[in-house]
Amino acid sequence: MEDYTYHFDPENEAVLGAHMLEVCPSIAGNRPRIEVHPLGIGGKAPPARLVFDAASGPAVLATLVDLGDRFRMIVNEIEAVKIEDVAPKGSASLPKLPVARALWRPYPSLRDASECWIIAGGAHHSVYTNAPDAEYFRDWAEMSGVEFVLIGRDARPARLRDELRWAEAYWRGR
Fold first, then answer.
1. CATH no. for residue 165?
2. Given this model, what pLDDT does residue 51 score?
3. What is the pTM of this model?
4. I need a surface site. Which of 110, 119, 120, 124 has the fewest CB within 10 A?
C-alpha cells in the first residue's frame, strides 16, 4: 500500500491509500472486480488489476526499515472508513482511480501520525492489514530481534523523539 492522497479537513481528516497491482483482496469490503487499464509507465501491455475498496474497521499499517545496524518495524494503528463517508457526494466511486484502495483515519490524528511516521523513518510503501493487530507485529519484532515502534492512540511526536533516542542507546549496547 502507499499513501495516495490526504484529506486535510480538520473535522474529517483521512488518508486514501492505493496501489495498482500488489494489494491482497483479503482486505476487500466488496467483491473485487478485475479490470484492464493502461499502466502509463514502462511501455508494457495494460495489466489486469483488482479494483475494490477495503473493508471498514480497525487495521494497521506496518513497514520494516533498514537502519544500517538494525531493522526497525513501524506500525501505525488506523481505522478504515468507507470512502462515501468522507468523499463529497457523487464522487465516492472514484472512477479515475481503478485500483485497490483503502481510506483510513490514522491514530492519534493525521498530523501527529504523519509526524511520528517521518520521525521514525517510515517508508513510502507499507503493509496494510485488517487481520493481525499491532500486538502481532510487536511479538514478531521481539522474537526476531527487530526494534518496534508503535504509533497508536497515545502517540505524541515529542515523546517519540525521546523514545527513539533511548532506543538508540539500547540497540547500540546489544
1. 3.20.14.10
2. 94
3. 0.92
4. 124
Give all strands (DSSP E) within 20-124, no chain letters: 33-36, 48-53, 57-66, 71-81, 100-106
Q: What are phi and psi of 108, to 5 degrees?
A: -85, -25
Q: What is the mean pLDDT of the chain?
A: 92
Domain that holds residue 65: 2-172
Q: Rounded CA gap, 134 and 111, in Å?
A: 20
Residue-by-residue DSSP string for 9-49:
-TTS-EEEEEESS---GGGBSS--EEEE----STT-PPPEE
Q: Is 60 helix (H, G, I), strand (E, B) or coil?
A: strand
Tally of domains within the chain: 1
